[in-house]
Amino acid sequence: MKTVLKWVGIAVVCLAAMVIAALLIIPHFIDARHYRAPFEKMVAEATGRSFSVGGDVRLSLFPWAGVSFSELRLGNPPGFPEPEFLAVRAFEVRLKLLPLLFGEVRVERLVISGPRVFLITHKDGRVSWDFNARSPKGPKPAAPAPGSAPAAPSGLPITSLEVGELSVSDGTLTLIDHNAASRQELSKLRLELKDLSLDRPVHFSASGDLNGKPVAAHGRLGPAGANLGQGRVPLELDIEAAGHLKVRATGGLENLLAGPRADLTIAVAEFSPRRLLADFGLSVPDTADPKVIERLSLAAAVKADAASVTVADGRLSLDQSQLTFNLTATEFAKPNVAFTLALDQIDLDRYLPPAAGRQAAGGEAPPRPAEVKTDYGALRKLVMDGTVTVGRLTAAKATVEKVNLKVRARDGVISLDPFGLTLYQGSAAGKTVVNVGGERPVTELHVTLDKVQANPLIRDLAGKDIIEGLANARISLSMVGDDPARIKQSLNGNGRIDFADGAIVGVDLAGMVRNVKSAFIGQTVTGPRPRTDFSELAVPFTLQRGVFATTEALLRSPLLRLLAAGKADLVRETLDFRLEPRIVGTIKGQGDEKERAGLVIPVIVSGSFADPVFRPDLAGMAKEGLKGIVPTPGAPTDAPTLQEKAGGLLKGILPGKK
What we know:
It is a single chain. The chain contains 10 helices and 29 strands. It is mainly β. Among the domains are: 17-130 and 157-197, no CATH class; 466-625, no CATH class. The radius of gyration is 41 Å and the shape is elongated.
């Protein structure tokens, strides 16, 4: 028996020696270069791209199984200006073979030197990293039978993993967008993982230069556990850029292989976006206030997988504004978004381009560019449901407060319904609906104003001091298009605006009545700026294709009644109104004690919005004044004659007539 065992042992030792000898000798007799051409052809056919491996290809089988090669190149799809998608200067991997039989992976080293990756966006919208554009040859996998349960996720069939050295050195990642004519480059890229294992945390670090400025990331991942790809893997990550951007993410990753999910808390320490953009050579927004976009910080809890993203307890600080938010997004192809936003205050005018960059006042308008159709495809697919509240908002120099609005979008219909806000000691409420389902957007607006101070509102919006008083309004408008010119041409609607206890500033209608010469012929009138006080001003109106029209606008004051009718063309910016003022009593306090009850002096308002012209309607005056002058049958014989009445009329209205 001993003899048998002895010979068996000798045979095993000899067999092991022969295997080891074969593993040492075989690589010297196998020329890996003979297999390079078939391998290159197989990869090229599978990807539809050029592929080559240059330089020496070396194999080793004992004590470590390894392969090394140099000058690997994978091309871009046809039509891209840049020939390469990936290039690797040198690659080497070495691992033990025998532990693989027991589900153990032991890698001595995995080293990649000089990798270069080019992520390119073509002018036609194609991207270089899309490998689905050309599917590999062969039958497609059969779809699962209806009603069948999906396969249960499983981890890798390994029991342990150990990597002694894993590194990437001298790498370059280049992003090129030919549509935006932009190029961003992350160079001197270096990645190191130390003591990679399944049963203890893995420490990693990465660094490089983004457009010449340093960026770095470091942290730890794991332990992953024996069932790699299943369960939760803790993660801590710190990112630094340009010396002043710091981002920290903590949390975990789940189901890394079957269905990856992330559950992270993200915090971005306060930094200057303006300075960061400048450091990386990116364009800095040109704003009216050069001191904005100087301070930004962010904190949020993020949960994400391949089908959805949820952001909870978000807090964003931008300059002097504080925003809290929650957001959920699913069906990314649409997408389907639900959110709540609460902003304390913001002055949007500070973030707009400076006034010097806009058309100079009184300057010649630039030629209107050819119409460019806007693609509303993304908005037609969008599904959105959210609420927005703003404590204080300034835009176009107007300030509103307590903004509340509900935002919805579905099938190309976007609505703010309802919205409400307070402004200038009053309030506004209503709804807006924009339909982008057609070639051009169709907008409907319904708004109600209640006790709004008109003068400061118009002064802030338009820089005009034209009217005072409390404004109440009911307005319904519809319009088509997305540029101001087309919107004005298609503007339709109706409404009514009422002003109480105010004044028309810049026009003295009572003065026009009593002093035609100074009012209409250009004689200078000294004293304070003219104005027409009123207790009530009602303006019902209609809008049709950009033409504002009113037939019975009415102004009331203790001494004056004024009826107005006419049109204002918003497209041509011209005026065509006729005003009929009636003095109903004395004009005390305005230098006139004479009774003028019932006297009618029509006024024609014409010209442009920028330069209105007021003139008396002489034909209307004569027609109105001659009423009752011609004696009626049966009148007393001592009644004033036609000549006397006409003379009295002319004395009252014509300058210099005695």
